[in-house]
Write a structure and sequence with these properties.
The complex is a heterodimer of chains A (86) and B (552). Chain A has 86 residues and is mostly helical. Chain A has helices spanning 25-48, 59-78; strands at 16-17, 20-21. In chain A, 51% of the residues lie in helices and 5% in strands. In chain A, α1 packs antiparallel against α2. Chain B is mainly alpha-helical. In chain B, the strands form two sheets. A four-stranded mixed sheet of chain B has the order 3-4-6-5. A two-stranded antiparallel sheet of chain B has the order 1-2. In chain B, a hairpin with a 2-residue loop joins β5 (531-539) and β6 (542-549). Chain B is globular. The chains are: A mainly alpha (86), B mainly alpha (552).
């Protein structure tokens, strides 16, 4: 496969072809899952350290937890797509 | 002797083909719908032109920040920095990145400090955005109709209409961001990959130094780059961060820390979730069609194709809307989301149309299958213009007393008056908005009346004004105060008002002009104790209070 101007071979169907790391749907899925968990976890942790002016979950925290959970679900749903390039 | 394929047209049973007359009729109806959709979008583009020309002719601030952004260009033209100490006279500093006024400075030198210079510049950037929008959709889909519809849908949106022709930097940021994304999208091009990448990074750098909010374009570009070329993305990303950081540090050193203080610290206002929620609701209500289409396209690329840079840009720009929940922010924070939604909706629909048309003509399908796909193709031919027509209706906005738009207002049965309007001569599906109406000759005359007050008071000292253009037109050497900047800093406890309060008590200012009184409370108290209201002037829907020193 001919190199392009970036000096790397073209092609987008392989998991790891020609020494180029190809980001796959599974990798993106795992990253999104972890990101979502981190967002939700950090949002809950805010209460543990006593930050924020709300007694329970504040409105911004609720949104952040929903966003984190949604990201995790999207991430989990991508993992079965396996080695297809992202 | 060749044997006809079993699925050829000749071999199709009659019952599996669409009635030709019905197919012709449906095609004509679809063409009519398409013309209707194009007419609706072209009408809204005409409204945009009318509004733009009206603003070019209006010499005063239409939106409060315009004069200050023009003043930044004047300062750069004089070789002065725009990031200044707010606590000393003239109590003025910019809170935006420097590129927009830098680009404007030579034009202001050439034509003078007039708002039309910045307004024409900003309006031109929207036209530039429209061009690449058409080109991107066409490049991805080879569908001119969809490219035209989605390009025109961009100009039809309420927020682009309202902000596009203002002397504000937002649209220049969007233009640079979009051009950067369009270039990075082609980083794998065999012949021009490297050129596209470098050009894209240059545009992204320009976007970031036009307005800090361009981080969505930068994030989308580098995420896309990382998905396609991870190692190179990290290397280029490190270089980009170093370059951005280097410029940042140099700016900060050159301005003695005022760049960081005024452009970063002063913009970190408290978060108000309720405001964000309201703006997201309005955003979804006004742009429902293109948003749902764009979301569908983004999901399709996420699960069934390679992730698209435009889908990434749409998602990140939409998430950025969360930052709109702070004082001074507004629907403008959603412009990038809306523009990328137009792009993604166009690309998604174009690809869908191509796919369905391809299926309908596929020779391997059974006659019944072909018939179904041909019906699907015809149905899509009707759905596409109907979707854009509905989107145009959602975005409807027009002056009610302009000869070119009044007949349409009557045709659409828009009530002449409503308690929910800022001005009765303008209708906007957004509801209450202070932008969008056409300034009148009476508004301009009122502005000149205020300028006369500034000139008449000059002997008693400079004018302290909540808007810049009155003093600029009066030929005052400097603009005194950037009110929202002072107000922000005061609310954060980062402003010492001693010198300005002292000058007010000394009655150092010959005239004070208020519009919204966005000043720190001690400043307002001092003014109240030392100045009297001498006149009220109505301009552009606002009441301007003019104050002169109290007799002693």
């Amino acid at each position: 496969m001919p190199p392009n101007k970036l000096g790397t071979p073209l092609g987008d169907s392989a998991h790891n072809r020609g020494g180029i790391l190809v980001i796959t749907k599974r990798m993106v899925g795992i990253a999104l899952t972890l990101l979502g968990l981190a967002i939700a976890g950090a949002t809950l942790a805010v209460d543990l350290v006593g930050a924020g002016k709300w007694g329970g979950l504040g409105p911004a925290q609720q949104v952040a937890i929903v966003v984190g959970a949604a990201l995790s679900l999207i991430g989990l749903s991508l993992i079965p797509l396996g080695d297809r390039p992202a | 002797m060749s044997v006809p394929h079993k699925d050829s047209i000749l071999s199709k049973p009659t019952h599996s083909r669409i009635n030709p007359a019905l197919e012709l009729l449906t095609g004509r109806v679809n063409q009519g719908l398409l013309l209707l959709a194009l007419a609706a979008l072209l009408f809204l583009f005409l409204v945009y032109l009318i509004y733009g020309v009206a603003l070019f002719r209006f010499p005063f601030d239409y939106d409060q920040g315009e004069g200050f952004e023009l003043w930044d260009a004047v300062l750069f033209g004089r070789g002065q920095w725009i990031y200044l100490d707010n606590e000393t006279f003239p109590f003025y500093s910019s809170n935006y990145a420097p590129l927009f006024p830098l680009l404007l400075a030579p034009l202001v030198k050439l034509f003078g400090p007039k708002l039309w210079v910045g307004r024409v510049f900003s309006f031109a950037t929207t036209l530039v955005i429209g061009g690449p929008s058409f080109w991107i959709v066409y490049r991805e889909t080879r569908d001119r109709v969809i490219a035209a519809l989605s390009g025109l849908a961009f100009f039809a949106t309420n927020i682009v209409y309202q902000i596009g022709p203002l002397c504000r930097l937002h649209m220049a940021m969007v233009m640079f961001g979009l051009l950067g994304i369009a270039c990075v999208a082609r980083l794998e091009d065999e012949k021009h990959g490297r050129r596209n990448l470098w050009l894209g990074l240059l545009f992204l750098l320009a976007a970031g130094y036009t307005k800090q909010l361009a981080f969505d374009a930068v994030a989308a570009a580098f995420l896309f780059f990382f998905l396609r070329r991870p190692k190179q993305a990290l290397i280029y990303g490190a270089g980009f961060v170093a370059l951005v950081g280097g410029i940042f540090v140099l700016l900060n050193l050159a301005t003695d820390g005022q760049w960081w203080f005024n452009a970063i610290t002063a913009n970190a206002n408290p978060f108000m979730p309720g405001q964000t929620q309201a703006l997201y609701k309005q955003w979804f209500r006004l742009y429902t069609v293109i948003l749902l289409l764009a979301a569908a396209y983004a999901l399709w690329t996420l699960y069934l194709d390679r992730i698209s840079i435009y889908g990434l840009y749409f998602v990140i720009a939409t998430a950025k809307g969360a930052l709109s929940g702070k004082w001074g922010a507004g629907p403008g924070y959603f412009i990038t989301s809306i523009i990328t939604a137009c792009l993604c909706a166009g690309i998604g629909l174009g690809l869908l149309r191509r796919w369905v048309a391809g299926r309908a003509a596929h020779p391997s399908l059974s006659p019944l299958g072909q018939k179904r796909w041909r019906w699907a193709n015809l149905a899509l031919g009707a759905a596409v213009p109907l979707l854009f027509l509905y989107q145009a209706r959602l975005n409807l906005h027009l002056p009610l007393d302009h000869p070119l738009t009044r007949p349409v207002a009557r045709l659409l049965n828009i009530p002449a008056e409503s308690p929910h309007r800022f001005r009765q001569d303008y209708y906007d599906s957004m509801g209450y908005t202070q932008l969008g109406h056409l300034p009148t000759a009476a508004d301009a005359a009122a502005g000149w009346q205020i300028v006369d007050w500034v000139r008449a008071s000059r002997a008693d000292g400079p004018t302290w004004s909540e808007e810049a253009m009155f003093t600029i037109w009066a030929g005052q050497d400097t603009v005194v105060t950037n009110p929202t900047q002072l107000y922000n800093l005061w609310n954060m406890g980062k402003l010492d008002v001693t010198e300005m309060v002292h000058m007010i008590y000394e009655q150092s200012f010959g005239l004070i002009i208020f519009r919204a009184q966005f000043y720190p409370p001690p400043v307002l108290d001092a003014i109240g104790q030392n100045y009297d209201v001498v006149d009220h002037v109505e301009m552009n829907g606002f009441t301007y209070a003019l104050l002169r020193p109290k007799p002693r």
